[in-house]
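Quick log. Single chain, no ligands specified.
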Amino acid sequence: MPKASKSNGRDQRRQARALSDNLQQQSRQRRQATTFTEQYRQYRRRRFLAVAFVALGVVIVLTHVVVHLGNITWLPTTGLQDLATGYPMGGLLVVLGLVVLGRR
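-> predicted structure:
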């Protein structure tokens, strides 16, 4: 009967440890190499644009309220002031922002 060598078990454990270390190193490299996809970048840009439209629309509507409450004139003609800082422009920007935000 052949005698079993003690180094055989040691070699197997060393190989298993090396394999485990190699797998862990590969998984770390994969995590570091992960980048955003172009589709996700477009989604982030679109979302930022939508939030900016909504915020700008809210600011325009609030400005319009303040102008009418305080009877303040910022632009030379009243008609232009109502058109540029009025409810229609603010509402349009808010709706446009919400439409862009709702797209998939």
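The radius of gyration is 32 Å.
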